[in-house]
UniProtKB/TrEMBL annotation:
<dbReference type="InterPro" id="IPR015341">
    <property type="entry name" value="Glyco_hydro_38_cen"/>
</dbReference>
<dbReference type="Pfam" id="PF07748">
    <property type="entry name" value="Glyco_hydro_38C"/>
</dbReference>
<keyword id="KW-0378">Hydrolase</keyword>
<dbReference type="InterPro" id="IPR011682">
    <property type="entry name" value="Glyco_hydro_38_C"/>
</dbReference>
<dbReference type="Pfam" id="PF09261">
    <property type="entry name" value="Alpha-mann_mid"/>
</dbReference>
<dbReference type="InterPro" id="IPR000602">
    <property type="entry name" value="Glyco_hydro_38_N"/>
</dbReference>
<keyword id="KW-0479">Metal-binding</keyword>
<dbReference type="InterPro" id="IPR041147">
    <property type="entry name" value="GH38_C"/>
</dbReference>
<dbReference type="InterPro" id="IPR028995">
    <property type="entry name" value="Glyco_hydro_57/38_cen_sf"/>
</dbReference>
<keyword id="KW-0326">Glycosidase</keyword>
<comment type="similarity">
    <text>Belongs to the glycosyl hydrolase 38 family.</text>
</comment>
<dbReference type="Pfam" id="PF01074">
    <property type="entry name" value="Glyco_hydro_38N"/>
</dbReference>
<dbReference type="InterPro" id="IPR037094">
    <property type="entry name" value="Glyco_hydro_38_cen_sf"/>
</dbReference>
<protein>
    <submittedName>
        <fullName>Glycoside hydrolase family 38 C-terminal domain-containing protein</fullName>
    </submittedName>
</protein>
<dbReference type="GO" id="GO:0016787">
    <property type="term" value="F:hydrolase activity"/>
</dbReference>
<feature type="domain" description="Glycoside hydrolase family 38 central">
    <location>
        <begin position="287"/>
        <end position="357"/>
    </location>
</feature>
<dbReference type="InterPro" id="IPR011330">
    <property type="entry name" value="Glyco_hydro/deAcase_b/a-brl"/>
</dbReference>
Length: 878
């Protein structure tokens, strides 16, 4: 009989932060890495060690131990220590697709610079796998993937090896770590351990490896110190067990050996969120909503504003802020580590995460401020005008539409015009008079206070046409005369545009009508409040609890102008303050939700804004949005570069406990920004900013979690998650900040199409909702709106034209990223095609060479024509 080979892989899974802070982690890291380097150098028989596949630990170590760089590089080059391809172990279902790719880009390039990038898409502990990870790993030239979570036994053909396939058709050889990453953490040759622990684990692994003699036994854990006894322990195991060979190994060697024996035929497609063998924590995506919301805003600012505007400016002679962006992205990768972005941390750690996000946000604002100011000054040099407004368009097509901007003037009446003097349609959304204050003037009679004239701050909605693609256009501000509309109070209870109508009914509910067909959704919106007896990882229903519904509201006001209309309502009820009150059926705490609906003239969706001040504890609040037609069996959501399908009812839910699943397979699904339903009445779609989970109810309602409020990091025996607490055991960690007793805002948009809506249309609407544009007014009245305006900077002496376009693209595909290349020798553009058919693109007003690259931004070939595969993407370098 052929002996089985058991690959013992020593490793440490290094959490950047969790119930401990990042400082705790780094202090421990230095001690452990010192010891690891010394051990491997002194003991050549200690084969290798996997340092969790992330480069952040290397960078942190070398920040404190720079003199050990060559020692560490030598061990990495010789595959004694494995690092990469990640910078941090990111949560792939809670962050932007481009943030996942950027994490791999920094991790892979830094690992290559240190001598070797591990050839494994390593996913030991993240809570569910993004459907596009196989394609992303292939895009970085990785040969294999190893993961822990998300696969059902029925998907496996009696083997833990399978081909994992992305929606674009790319696939990668993959291994499932059935017992997670720590079954060999306490590896020992002690007879009792061998008989009672090791043998049963190895035998079960053999039962799941019918087509290979290679068995993987990951032997590590969280923040563990390298086990120096492993070589001698393995010698003893080989003496005890005549049927198996135990070897010190690594993930690369294991996968090469296993996949060289014969190909594995099983193919598993797409997103992996099964809860049979490992917990997925489906509802962690609504934990600490404030982190999710701010992270979404920061990602948008970096990817869709700062980087493309900096690229435009760099082609005009300004410096691209690469060094700043490097530090900002690395700080963001720390936020994106699976525990961090999940919010399942101590209050100290979550506070650090919010501070980190705010710092990145401020840096992005400052860099945008300077770039916009320099470009605007160069345009002013050309025009010889003082009162100009420059609008930036970061989309690669000429754009017509509405955008928001803020204008400062001495006169409350003003007009925004083109350079030729043609007035733009605009609406004053809000206007306030601001006192100029006083300044100190030194005179012959001493210091005197001098009154500074006041001015007006106006928030504007402006309609523009022919905005240059990936470029800017300048406009003039003429004071003293106004052609702007103003929102005015209306007595009607209806708002509408040419696409949609929203009506407040005499029943205290909202109806939504598609104007082209007359189809109406009655009772569009209500709210569901219920107990949350869970912890920071998982929502858990309280036995015997019934939801409280906020259905009938009160109308606050209706405002209208020819460009935009708004309707504001409130929903109020009393809710239990604590779980104890809820069990006594008491409700003493007010819950009020203020909702504003906004319809802009050019938009085929309604913008929705909620304001909630939460005063209760241990509960969950969801908005329930009624979809049209027959309740569906499936829904869709965006993930990676297309829309993925989700089942409304998980067939495993009826017998998950009997089958011993680790967690209830509830049909609560992740989304990046889009979720929707197709029915016999059309397509109902919701686009969100920071809301990351949804569920389709049997009523056809789409339930989007606004927030969860819990005060414990871990709790035993939840209704949907039996057994031990997740995370740290045997200690109660209270997290009062996670009760979210604060004011919160929520923004999303609803569209209602009469027929099937193309994914391209939906993604374009998302871009319109997110407003891929920025503005800058050259003015001297206010130096606080953009914080760096009050300081001196070196102004350009050059002049720039009143309009500029970097390039214009003709394609049905969408721009995913526009940035400077990692090597700072070109511009990287990535396009994605969410359709089932291939797409092509051509560039206007660009005459230089175009190359196709992989995700690692290494050139594959020069091309004249770019094709984007179905549900795929293509990266080009200019």
């Amino acid at each position: 009989m052929t002996k089985k080979t058991v690959h013992i892989v020593p490793h440490s899974h290094w959490d950047r932060e969790w119930y401990f802070t990042i400082e705790d982690s780094n202090i421990l890291l230095i001690e452990n890495m010192d010891y690891l380097i010394h051990l491997l150098e002194e003991n050549p028989h200690y084969y290798s060690y996997v340092m969790d596949g992330q480069m952040s630990v290397v960078e942190e170590y070398l920040r404190i131990r720079p003199d050990n760089r060559e020692r560490l590089k030598n061990l990495i080059t010789n595959k004694r220590i494995f690092v990469g391809p990640w910078y941090t172990q990111t949560d792939s279902l809670l962050v932007h697709k481009e943030a996942v790719i950027r994490n791999l880009l920094y991790g892979s390039r830094m690992a290559e610079d240190m001598g070797h990038n591990m050839n494994i898409g390593y996913l030991p502990d993240i809570f569910g796998q993004n459907a596009y990870l196989p394609s992303m790993f292939k895009g970085f030239g990785l040969g294999y993937s190893i993961l822990q979570r998300g696969v059902y036994s029925e998907q496996l053909d009696n083997d833990l090896h399978f081909m994992w396939k992305s929606p674009d058709g790319e696939s990668i050889p993959t291994n499932l770590m059935l017992f997670g990453y720590g079954p060999g953490k306490f590896l020992s040759a002690d007879p009792t351990y061998y008989e009672e622990k090791l043998q049963p684990i190895v035998e079960k692994l053999e039962n799941y490896n019918k087509h290979t003699d290679q068995i993987l036994l990951p032997s590590g854990g969280d923040q563990v110190l390298v086990r120096d006894h492993f070589p001698s322990t393995i010698q003893q195991l080989n003496q005890q067990d005549e049927d198996r060979d135990y070897i010190l190994s690594d993930y690369e060697h294991f996968m090469e050996q296993a996949w060289s024996e014969e190909p594995f035929d099983t193919v598993i497609e797409g997103e992996l969120t099964a809860t049979e063998h490992s917990r997925i924590h489906q509802t962690i995506r609504s934990q600490r909503y404030d982190i999710k919301q701010l992270n979404t805003n920061v990602e948008h600012k970096l990817l869709h504003l700062l980087e493309p505007i900096a690229v435009m400016a760099s082609t005009l002679g300004f410096r691209y802020p690469q060094e700043w962006l490097d530090t900002m992205w690395k700080d963001l990768f720390d936020v994106h580590a699976h525990d961090s972005i999940g919010g399942c941390n101590s209050d100290d750690t979550n506070s650090d995460i919010m501070i980190r996000l705010r710092k990145i946000d401020r840096k992005a604002d400052g860099l945008l401020n300077i770039i916009k100011k320099q470009v605007t000054q160069a345009v002013a040099n050309e025009l010889g005008e003082e009162q100009i407004l420059v609008l930036f368009n970061t989309m690669p097509q000429v754009w017509d539409g509405q955008l928001t901007t803020t204008i400062f003037t001495k006169d409350p009446a003003f007009t925004i015009t083109t350079i030729k003097g043609e007035p733009l349609d605009s609406t004053v959304l809000d206007q306030e008079y601001i006192s100029g204050g006083k300044k100190i003037v030194v005179t012959a009679d001493g210091e005197q206070e001098v009154e500074i004239p006041g001015y007006y701050r106006s928030e504007m909605l402006v309609t523009v046409t022919d905005m240059p693609a990936l470029g800017y256009a300048a406009y003039l501000i003429q004071e003293g005369v106004s052609s702007s509309y103003r929102l005015a109070a209306a007595t009607e209870t209806v708002i509408s545009n040419s696409f949609l109508q929203l009506e407040w009914t005499d029943k205290g509910t909202i109806s939504l009508t598609n104007q082209s067909t007359g189809s109406t959704i009655e009772n569009l919106l209500c709210f569901e409040e219920r107990a949350d007896a869970g912890d920071s990882y998982d929502f858990s229903p309280l036995p015997g609890d019934s939801p409280i519904y906020l259905e009938d509201g009160a109308l606050i006001d209706v405002q209208r102008s020819p460009e935009v209309e708004k309707l504001t309502v409130s929903h109020t009820t009393a809710v239990p303050h604590t779980l104890e009150e809820r069990q006594k059926q008491q409700a003493t705490t007010p819950c009020t939700i203020i909702t504003t609906f906004e319809l802009r003239k050019t938009e085929n969706f309604v913008r929705v804004h909620h304001e909630v001040t939460n005063q209760a504890k241990d509960h969950r609040l969801r908005v329930l949005l009624q979809s049209p037609g027959t309740p569906p069996t499936t829904s869709f959501a965006d993930q990676g570069f297309s829309l993925v399908e989700h089942a409304v009812n998980n067939p495993h839910l009826s017998e998950w406990k009997e089958r011993g699943h680790k967690e209830a397979p509830v049909s609560i699904h992740p989304l990046e920004s889009i979720a929707g339903i197709e029915s016999d009445k059309g397509t109902f779609t919701v686009m969100t900013k920071g809301m990351k989970e949804y569920e389709v109810l049997d009523t056809g309602q789409m339930a989007f979690t606004l927030f969860r409020s819990v005060g414990l990091l871990g709790r035993d025996n939840l209704t949907w998650r039996p057994g031990r607490a997740s995370g740290i055991n045997n200690k109660v960690v209270y997290t009062p900040d996670a009760q979210m007793q604060q004011c919160m805002t929520f923004d999303y948009a609803i569209s209602f199409d009469s027929s099937s809506a193309s994914p391209t249309v939906l993604f374009n609407r998302l871009y319109q909702f997110n407003e891929h544009n920025a503005s800058y007014q050259k003015q001297s009245l206010n130096s606080f709106e953009e914080r760096l305006d009050r300081f001196e900077i070196p102004y350009p002496v050059e002049t720039l034209n009143a309009q500029y376009s970097l390039l214009q693209v003709h394609t049905t595909s969408l721009l995913s990223v526009c940035k400077q290349s990692y090597d700072q020798d070109g511009i990287i553009l990535r396009w994605f095609n969410p359709l089932h058919e291939p797409a092509t693109l051509s560039l206007s007003n660009y005459n230089q060479s175009i190359s196709v690259t992989n995700l690692n931004e290494k050139v594959k070939e020069k091309v004249d024509r770019v094709t984007i595969p179905p549900k795929g993407y293509q990266t080009i370098k200019l």
